[in-house]
Amino acid sequence: MTLLTNEENTLNFSPSCERNKDAILARLLPILSSKNSVLEIGSYSGQHALHICRLLPRLTWQPSDQLSLINDLNENLQHHNVNNIKPAINLDVSNATQWPAEKYDVIFSANTLHIMSWQHVVAMFKHLPQCLNNNSYLCIYGPFKYNGKYTSVSNENFQQWLQNRDPVSGIRDFEKTNELATNVGLKLIHDIAMPANNQLLIWTNKNVC
Questions:
Q1: Per the record, a Pfam family (predicted)?
Q2: Fewer CB under 10 Å: which end of the chain, C or N?
């Protein structure tokens, strides 16, 4: 089976995803190895789903994205035919009716919060608990600010690029994001520094001492 390794065989191929997918998997593996189901928010090209599900065939993975990206995403998934990945669903996180009725052991999202508006981030945290099983996890990967400060000059430059592209996007404040999670009953258990000045934030809804 052909692996996702270059832009030629993948619609909307993400070079940054390709560079960071192994580092993300290494940190998620202790959680994913004991779980059965994942909802991914903002799957885009499907590179994370394909990479992880090949190595963890017992997982059932539900990709999702905005309607404009669904056809390309599903074409990628069909081309590589990994049996434990479901067809992608349309999910506008601000639309309560589009959230799936199923519950999942893990909700995962990479490089999405800085693309969404803050209003969409708020809506996402409001609705996601309805899709979590008991003893489940929320895992968010991407850049964050801490105490209003960027973790690197490159992230500060990236913020300017984001704002020029779309004024409602931007690198989110860790403290405000964590407050949204806390308000819906999630507890932060890991804040992991990742390559390229990103973070992997992991919350859980199980009782943590």
A1: DUF938
A2: C
- Please give the structure tokens belonging to residue 35: 């779980």
Going by C-beta distance under 8 Å and a sequence separation of 6 or more, which residues neighbour residue 144? 151, 171, 172, 173, 174, 177, 199, 201
Q: What are phi and psi of 26, to 5 degrees?
A: -60, -40
Look at the block and give the residue holding tokens 């069909």: 78
Confidence class of residue 92 from pLDDT cuts 50, 70 and 90? very high
pLDDT of residue 1: 32
Which tokens is 178 given?
């964590």
Cα 34 from Cα 119, distance rounded (Å): 33
- What count of other Cβ atoms lies within 10 Å of the Cβ of residue 179? 11
Ranges of each domain in the chain: 36-91, 116-209
**Residue 10: what pLDDT?**
87
CA distances from 35 to 43, 82, 199, 208 (A): 19, 18, 22, 18
Split at pLDDT 50, 70, 90, the class of 16 is confident
Beta pairing partners, 140: 109, 201
Which residue in 56, 23, 2 sits closest to 193, CA to CA?
23
Average pLDDT score over residue span 122-141? 97
Identify the architecture of domain 116-209 in CATH: 3-Layer(aba) Sandwich (3.40)
